[in-house]
Amino acid sequence: RSSWLLLAPLLTPPVPLITAPPCSLCPEGAHRFQWIRNLVPEFGISSSHVKVLSSPAEFYELLKVQIKTAKQRVVMASLYLGTGLLEQELVDCLEETLEKSLQAKGSSNLRVSILLDYTRGSRGRKNSRTMLIPLLQRFPEQVRVSLFHTPNLRGLLRLLIPERFNETIGLQHIKVYLFDDNVILSGANLSDLYFTNRQDRYVLLQDSPEIADFFTELVDAIGDLSLQLQRDDTVQMMEGMVHPYQGDKMAYCEMANRRVMEVINSARTRQELLHAKTFHSSQQGSSLLSQQGSQASGGLKPEPDTWIYPLIQMKPFGIQIDEMVTETLLTEAERDARIYLTTGYFNLTQAYMDLILGTRAEYRILLASPEVNGFFGAKGVAGAIPAAYVYIEHQFYSEVCYLHQQERVQLQEYSRAGWTFHAKGLWLYLAGSDLPCLTLIGSPNFGYRSVHRDLEAQVAIVTENKALQQQLHQEQEQLYLCSGVVSSSTFEQPNRYVKLWVKLVTPLIKNFF
Question: What residues have CB less than 8 Å from 119, skipping those under 6 apart?
Answer without folding.
Answer: 149, 150, 153, 163, 166, 167, 171
